[in-house]
C-alpha cells in the first residue's frame, strides 16, 4: 500500500464513508474525523513526506465535500500531518497507546488550527462552546476509531511483519 493509488483509494473510500454513512449513524452533527485519523497514522508510520501528501489530498477532498471555507481543512490537516510525521522515527510503531495519544493530540491541534484560521478570517469564534459541543464528542469518537484504522494502515504499509 505504498503506492499513491492505494492511498487515493483509502482517502476516497474514507471520505465517502465520512460524508455519507457516518452522519446517518452519529447524531447532532458530531462524528469521527476518519481522514484525520488516517493522516495521523500515515505520519506516525510512513513519515512526514507521506503524511503531508496524504493530508493535502484528504484536506482538499474534505474542503470540496464540506462547502465550508475553502482551504481550511487542507491547511489544518497538513499541519497535523507534518507534526505527526515528525514523530515517525522516534516512536515504537507497534505500541497500542501510540494511536490513542497521537489522535488525542491531533484532534485538539486540528481544532485549534481551524479555530485560529476562522478567527483570522473574521469569523466569530466561541472556543468554549465549540470545545464542549463539537471537539470533545468528536474526540471520543476519534479514540474509538483510531486503533482499528492505525492497525489497518500499519498492515497496508508494512504487511504482516509483526504480531500487531
Automatic annotation (TrEMBL):
<feature type="transmembrane region" description="Helical">
    <location>
        <begin position="135"/>
        <end position="154"/>
    </location>
</feature>
<feature type="transmembrane region" description="Helical">
    <location>
        <begin position="6"/>
        <end position="27"/>
    </location>
</feature>
<keyword id="KW-0472">Membrane</keyword>
<keyword id="KW-0133">Cell shape</keyword>
<protein>
    <submittedName>
        <fullName>Rod shape-determining protein MreD</fullName>
    </submittedName>
</protein>
<comment type="similarity">
    <text>Belongs to the MreD family.</text>
</comment>
<dbReference type="Pfam" id="PF04093">
    <property type="entry name" value="MreD"/>
</dbReference>
<keyword id="KW-0812">Transmembrane</keyword>
<dbReference type="InterPro" id="IPR017225">
    <property type="entry name" value="Cell_shape_determin_MreD_prd"/>
</dbReference>
<dbReference type="GO" id="GO:0005886">
    <property type="term" value="C:plasma membrane"/>
</dbReference>
<feature type="transmembrane region" description="Helical">
    <location>
        <begin position="96"/>
        <end position="123"/>
    </location>
</feature>
<keyword id="KW-1003">Cell membrane</keyword>
<feature type="transmembrane region" description="Helical">
    <location>
        <begin position="64"/>
        <end position="84"/>
    </location>
</feature>
<dbReference type="GO" id="GO:0008360">
    <property type="term" value="P:regulation of cell shape"/>
</dbReference>
<dbReference type="InterPro" id="IPR007227">
    <property type="entry name" value="Cell_shape_determining_MreD"/>
</dbReference>
<keyword id="KW-1133">Transmembrane helix</keyword>
Amino acid at each position: 500500500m505504498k503506492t499513491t493509488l492505494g492511498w487515493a483509494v483509502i482517502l476516497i473510500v474514507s471520505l465517502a464513508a465520512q460524508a455519507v454513512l457516518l452522519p446517518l449513524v452519529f447524531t447532532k452533527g458530531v462524528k469521527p474525523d476518519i481522514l484525520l485519523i488516517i493522516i495521523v497514522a500515515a505520519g506516525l508510520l510512513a513519515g512526514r513526506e507521506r503524511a503531508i501528501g496524504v493530508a493535502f489530498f484528504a484536506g482538499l477532498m474534505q474542503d470540496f465535500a464540506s462547502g465550508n471555507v475553502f482551504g481550511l481543512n487542507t491547511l489544518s490537516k497538513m499541519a497535523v500531518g507534518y507534526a505527526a510525521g515528525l514523530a515517525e522515527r522516534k516512536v515504537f510503531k507497534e505500541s497500542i497507546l501510540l494511536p490513542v495519544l497521537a489522535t488525542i493530540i491531533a484532534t485538539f491541534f486540528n481544532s485549534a488550527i481551524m479555530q485560529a484560521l476562522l478567527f483570522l478570517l473574521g469569523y466569530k469564534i466561541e472556543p468554549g462552546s465549540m470545545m464542549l459541543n463539537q471537539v470533545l464528542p468528536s474526540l471520543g469518537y476519534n479514540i474509538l476509531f483510531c486503533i482499528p484504522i492505525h492497525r489497518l494502515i500499519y498492515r497496508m504499509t508494512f504487511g504482516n511483519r509483526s504480531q500487531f
